[in-house]
Write a structure and sequence with these properties.
Blueprint (H helix, E strand, L loop, with lengths): L1 E8 L2 E2 L9 H4 L5 E8 L3 H11 L3 H9 L5 E5 L2 E12 L4 E11 L3 E7 L5 H8 L2 H4 L3 H34 L8 H29 L11 H64 L14 H22 L4
Parallel strand pairs: 3-7
Antiparallel strand pairs: 1-2, 1-3, 4-5, 5-6, 6-7
Helix pairs in contact: 6-7, 6-8, 7-8, 8-9
Length: about 325
Amino acid sequence: MIVHCAVYEDGRRREGELALEDAYEAAAGPGAFVWIGLVEPTEAEFESVRREFDLHELAVEDAIEAHQRPKLDVYGDTLFVVLKTARWIAEPEFVHFGEILVFVGDRFLITVRHGEPDLDDVRRAIESNPDFLRRGPGAALHAVVDHVVDDYEPVVDQLDAAIRQVEADVFAPTRSNPAERIYALKRAALSLDAAIVPLVEPVAGLAEDRYGLIDDDLQSYFRDVHDHLARMAGHVASFRELLNSVLTANLTQASVRQNEDVRKISAWAAIIAVPTLITGIYGMNFDHMPELGWRLGYPAAVALMGLVCLTLYRYFHKVGWL
């Protein structure tokens, strides 16, 4: 479905409605380009756009089906850029991804969105800066890419906070085992890594204008986006390593707690064994046991059991078993 179709000329949006079949011709003037926005188009809906701008069938197929990895492909004079958008979902902790696919030509920019909030804020922001928009479709491409990359930052921050919390839980004196949460955060880190890292090289290519569609003045803007993206890629890589260490530490802590439980059980078993042994002897049918005829024999036996149990308890407590 087409949600936006406008011509920009000399940095300003041309007034009036624009029919799709007139879009390419409308952008034929100097300093003009057309920006078309679509949301989850069907093959039939996209066919008219493909014909109007002579888009490559492989790129069109990717744009319709979505679920592509971040990339930049060149089809003749057209760039095809795939961007993964990201949003942190607190409950349960995971990263929700959308997709923006962008076709960029000399006189046009086409954005196709899948599961991504609208780009109205991006469009309004760039329309408020005619000097920047005057640089052509490359300026609009920068606005979209910059928007996607900026949205990664809060996700990286939220993931960082969650990892710090689970790290504290691992070493907390509680008996909880956060292994399931650690695995969930590992999945989030891996999926975020798959969205960010493949995009680093394409953005570097845009910053160096390897494709001949980026105004010289825009290269510094793309370099800034590339630096931002590379920094977050480094953060996500460190998250993966840290979560591996946290998982190892959690397994170690669980093993230590298990050993502590075994020691406590063994200590109590040793303490209970003493009175059990003594009472077991008395449970045997002996007729001639000297202490049976002694008035203090029973209290003395009980006192002996208590003394031995107390001695064992103090010993096990001293060595850290209890």
